[in-house]
Design goal:
globular; 5 helices; seven-stranded mixed beta sheet
Amino acid sequence: MDDAEVMIGPVNLAARVDEALAVQALAFGLDDEEIAVRRHIVLRHLLSPGARAYGATTPEGKLVGFVYGMPNDRGHWWSTVVETYLRATGTADWLDDSFVITELHVHPAHQGRGVGRELITTITDEAAEPRSILSAIDTESPARGLYRALGYEDLARQVHFPSAVRPYAVMGAPLPLKRRN
């Protein structure tokens, strides 16, 4: 990791949810109403079997990035939305035996320094599942570039989530994720 002053480790995301959502709001451009909705979603997700979170913290203990995920469950809302799109591309089997990256966000001041890469590889290295899936806004972005560099490929594009303005892509990668050569 290039951001030497940031430490990656397990984080009690439920206890630090407001701090994490402040990072997400900056990184993702959320307003107060969206933050309030996401707060309840994050806390509910963290109760799922196998859910875990990692944080990127400064030496002073400030959270500047986080990732959380869990083994995928076809009964979860996200899976029920993306399943139709994955079925259309012949990739619905990715919903089984996969670790889903639910959220990954890095404070803009720490982006481009390897923090996101370290967070996602750390959490997936501990996954018992043989592959990982996630969704990302379906546009060329540094995040999509990172996911591709790690081995994620598009499984479905132009995925529309209710209430989301922009379409998403669902991506999947075998585990362990690729490392830099």
